[in-house]
Design brief:
By secondary structure, the chain is α+β, with helices and mostly antiparallel strands. The strands form two sheets. Strands 3-4-7-5-6 form a five-stranded mixed sheet, covered by helices on one side. Strands 1-2 form a two-stranded antiparallel ribbon. The protein is globular and about 55 Å long. The longest helix has 18 residues. It has three domains: 59 residues, no CATH class; 156 residues, no CATH class; 101 residues, Arc Repressor Mutant, subunit A, CATH 1.10.10. It starts with a strand and ends in an 8-residue tail after the last helix. A hairpin with a 2-residue loop joins strand 3 and strand 4. Helix content is 48%, strand content 11%.
Amino acid sequence: MSAANNFLSELYRLAHSNGLDAQGLLRQAGLEPSVIDQKDIRVDTEKLAVIVQGIWDGLDDEAMGLSSSRIPRGSFHMMGAIAIGENTLRKALQMGIRFYGMVTEAFQITLREEGDLAFLEFRMASPEKDRDHLFSEINLMGWHRFASWLISENVVLHEVFFDYAPPSHISEYAYLFPGEHRFGSDLQGISFHRKFLDYEISRSKAALKRFIKRCPNDFFIQPRTDFSVSSELKRMLKKSLPDSFPIVGEAADKLHMTRRTLIRKLRDEGTSYQKIKDLVRRDHAIYLLTNRSTPLAEIAEAVGFSDPAVFTRAFKTWTGISPRDYRRETRLPASKT
């Protein structure tokens, strides 16, 4: 599995700015300094994990110096050891929240339930220290992947909230954070169907040790047990582009179920056919916008819009900004030395 090179470049600069042997960490990961800031290169997530672990160890801080409050090395492992002793995901998350409340002030975590949804929310103590959002991204990925791992089932994300603007590598978010994205929120967090909170914990201490040893490599990988109807529908609709999407009844036929069953299953997963269509179009549009030379009219057509103006309005609804503004705001910054 690979990730965008910006993660490596930001980690390298972070290690260097904190007085660590940044080039030594690259060597440990089997990487050459020449790969830094080469935006077209993707990096193996196992190599990224080596560097993150090196920073965690070197700073004795799982917040990597990106918060006004440290998270002592080993905190995630200790939290996991406490959480797997509970019988449901709800209780495991509640115990994890209590644990972090005792060991750090880096964030305040809240688990709340509203209607059919559960919300795991983070209010960061010092977001200004995490300018590149490294800590935020790893933290959100970590909690989602850990929750999914605990119950041996992908916790299907409904929405993901970010307290910052879309980053330059937003095209990665479609994979790292599958679900609807809300930028510019007053907090960070994820929402998902509350049914997952009642799922039983199915992991042992031995399995936890293996999971922790791989961290944060597995954070960059979607859980492998995503058999949700919404994910199957996304895969099917992606194959339809640039042609128009089938109506809901036709989509149901292709998934070998009735229209009513498809609508019900999507509702149970906290989504709808229209939301899935919008997500597929949005993610593909974002991917195409990263190619600066592709005209907006071509992108509009590629995601199913014959009129660029209609596409622009739709994109603004999905992301909060126009395609042109998105392309300008997410332009990669010049390399730092």
